[in-house]
Design brief:
- The strands form two sheets. Strands 1, 4, 5, 6, 7, 8, 9 and 10 form an eight-stranded mixed β-sheet that branches. The chain has a two-stranded antiparallel sheet with strand order 2-3.
- It folds into two domains: about 90 residues; about 240 residues, 2-Layer Sandwich (BirA Bifunctional Protein, domain 2), CATH 3.30.930.10.
- It contains 13 helices and ten strands.
- About 40% of the residues lie in helices and about 20% in strands.
- The structure holds phenylalanine.
- Phenylalanine binds next to β9 and β10.
Length: about 350
C-alpha cells in the first residue's frame, strides 16, 4: 500500500513538472498505457488472496483516477501555454499599410471606357453588336459601298493597301467601319438594327488624326425608316453620352458615296486653357458622318431598294473621348505613357451603366 502511495506521489509530481506536451505524453504512456506501471499492478491482482484483491483493486483504481485527472489538467494547461506562445510569435501588425490591389492601381484606357459607354447606350436603344475583320477586301471597303475603282473618294481615304495578289485583287486595312454594314446586310435579313465598334486605319497624323483610330458604325434597315429616325437616334445618343441636355449639335449637308442624302454632325464646344467644354457655338468638332443608305448599296448587297430603306452613321470614338474627357491631343492616346493613363484612365471598378451613370 505504501508503494502505491509513493507511486501516486511520484507520478503526480512528474506530471506537474512535465515541461511540454511531448514529455507529458511519455509520462502518460509510462503510467496508464498498456504496458504502464498501473496496468502492471492490475495484472498482479489475480495472484492475490480474494479478500486483499478487492481493496487493493479499489486502491489502484483510485490512483489511476487521480493520475488521469492530473494528466488531463496538465494537458489543458500545457495546451494553453503553447497557444499563447503561438499567438505571441505569429502576431500581425494590423496597423501596417496594405499593398494596393491591382484594382486600385490599374487603369482602363479612355477609349475602352468610351467604347463601353457607347455600346451601353445603343444596347439600351435596342441595337445589337456586329463585327468585321480589320483586313478587308477592296470590295467591302469600297466597291460595294458605291465607291467604284477610280472614284475620287478612294484618294480621300488615305488607304493602307496590301500588295496585289496574282489574281489582281488587293486587300486593305479597313478605312472605316462601314465595311461591317456590307457584311451584315449580306448575311442577315431586315429589319436590321446594329452597331459595330472597331479599329480603322488611315495614313494620316496630326493633333486630331492618328493612323489607327476607332469608329462605331450604326445601321438601321427596315421598310419605312427615315431621316427623322436617324436624327432622333443621334440626338438621344449625344444627350445620354455627354450627360447634358443642352448639347449643341450641327447637322451639315455633306457627301458620302454610300449615303444619300448625307450629313456630317458637329458638336459645339469652347476651350478653357487646354480643356474642352461641351456646349455653346464657339467652336465645332466633327464627330460623325451619316445619311440614308444609298439605293446602289442596297442593291449591291442583294436588298431591294424598292422594299427596304434605312440609315447609317459612323462615329469617331476617339473624338468623343477627347470631347467628353477634355483631352486635346489625340496622339497622346496611343503614346503608351503610363503617367498619361494614370491621369486620364478609369478605375476598373467603374463600369459604365446608364442607370449607375456613364
Ligand atoms: N464611313 C464614313 C467615314 O468614315 C462615315 C459614315 C458612315 C458616313 C456611315 C455615312 C454613313 O467617314
Amino acid at each position: 500500500m505504501a508503494e502505491l502511495e509513493t507511486l501516486e506521489k511520484e507520478l503526480i509530481s512528474s506530471i506537474k513538472e512535465a515541461a511540454d506536451l511531448k514529455s507529458l505524453e511519455e509520462i502518460r504512456v509510462g503510467a496508464v498505457g498498456k504496458k504502464g506501471s498501473i496496468p502492471a499492478l492490475m495484472s498482479g491482482l489475480g495472484k492475490m488472496p480474494p479478500e486483499e484483491r478487492k481493496s487493493f483493486g479499489q486502491s489502484v483504481n483510485k490512483v489511476k483516477q487521480a493520475v488521469t485527472t492530473e494528466l488531463e489538467s496538465r494537458k489543458a494547461e500545457l495546451e494553453r501555454i503553447a497557444l499563447n506562445e503561438r499567438l505571441e510569435t505569429e502576431r500581425e501588425d494590423v496597423t501596417l499599410p496594405m499593398r494596393q490591389s491591382p484594382a486600385l492601381t490599374g487603369r482602363i484606357h479612355p477609349i475602352s471606357q468610351v467604347w463601353e459607354e457607347i455600346t451601353e447606350i445603343f444596347a439600351d436603344l435596342g441595337f445589337s453588336m456586329a463585327e468585321g475583320p480589320h483586313i478587308e477586301t477592296d470590295e467591302n471597303n469600297f466597291t460595294k459601298l458605291n465607291i467604284p475603282a477610280e472614284h475620287p473618294a478612294r484618294q480621300e481615304h488615305d488607304t493602307f493597301y496590301f500588295n496585289e495578289k496574282e489574281d489582281g485583287t488587293r486587300r486593305v486595312l479597313r478605312t472605316h467601319t462601314s465595311t461591317v454594314q456590307v457584311r451584315v446586310m449580306e448575311n442577315e435579313k431586315p429589319p436590321l438594327r446594329i452597331i459595330a465598334p472597331g479599329r480603322v486605319y488611315r495614313c494620316d497624323s496630326d493633333q486630331t488624326h492618328t493612323p489607327m483610330f476607332h469608329q462605331v458604325e450604326g445601321l438601321v434597315i427596315d421598310k419605312d425608316t427615315h431621316m427623322g429616325h436617324l436624327k432622333w437616334v443621334l440626338e438621344e445618343f449625344c444627350k445620354t453620352f455627354f450627360e447634358v441636355d443642352d448639347v449643341t449639335m450641327r447637322f451639315r449637308a455633306s457627301h458620302f458615296p454610300f449615303t444619300e442624302p448625307s450629313a456630317e454632325v458637329d458638336i459645339g464646344y469652347s476651350k478653357k486653357g487646354d480643356e474642352m467644354i461641351i456646349g455653346g457655338e464657339e467652336k465645332w468638332l466633327e464627330i460623325l458622318g451619316c445619311g440614308m443608305v444609298h439605293p446602289n448599296v442596297l442593291h449591291n448587297v442583294g436588298l431591294d431598294p424598292e422594299e427596304y430603306q434605312g440609315f447609317a452613321f459612323g462615329i469617331g470614338i476617339d473624338r468623343l473621348a477627347m470631347l467628353k474627357y477634355g483631352m486635346s491631343d489625340l496622339r497622346a492616346f496611343f503614346a503608351g505613357d503610363s503617367r498619361w493613363l494614370k491621369h486620364y484612365g478609369f478605375s476598373p471598378l467603374h463600369v459604365p451603366t446608364i442607370a449607375g451613370g456613364l
